[in-house]
Amino acid sequence: MAEIRQLKLSPNQEYYLHEVVKQIFQFVKEGFMNGTVKVDVLIYSYFMSFGQTGEFLALSKEEQDKRPDLKKCCDHWKGLISPLGRDGNIILTECVGDLRYDDNSIMYPKGTIIGNIEKAPFPAVSESYAYRELLDPDNYSAPHDVLDFVNKKLHEAYPEFNLWCVAFDLESLSIYDLDQLPHMKRY
Hints:
The protein has helices at residues 2-5, 11-33, 50-57, 61-65, 68-74, 132-135, 145-157, and strands at residues 41-45, 81-87, 90-95, 99-100, 106-108, 113-117, 163-168, 172-177. It is α+β, with helices and mostly antiparallel strands. The strands form two sheets. Strands 2-3-6-1-8-7 form a six-stranded mixed β-sheet, with helices on both faces. Helix 2 (11-33) packs across helix 7 (145-157) and helix 3 crosses helix 5 (68-74). The longest helix is centred in the first third of the chain and has 23 residues, at 11-33. The mean pLDDT is 85.
């Protein structure tokens, strides 16, 4: 991808970005093209997710009581999300209430279908601090060039979808269907 060189990144960041773009394309295929259930947001993360929470809430009370570590965290989501099962590697959860950022802002409205894939979304690297700002620029006061580049490539590769991806550090990557969640286009 000669276009990456125009971003004026280090050679290691260029290679990393090339690999990330390829990986995001695979995520789109897995979550938006090959799935049997249409998701509104696809979240790749290896730590506690809506998918794990939904699966936990689907357990019997006796089974939940055996996991007090998860129970305390997951009780907050009762009445807000409901598990839908799995579609291959994707854990599906539906919002049965509005999930809010705060009292005034809705993150995921009632009816939103969240797909979770529980794995690390990015290639493992040493010295990860050199890569975190690339797809999470506002968290690090970095330019938006790389995130804009990735989303441009996403739109070029999949023009039939209106998708936007953004990361949180190197711990999670979310791909939003902007036709369903237009307010999630953010940096």
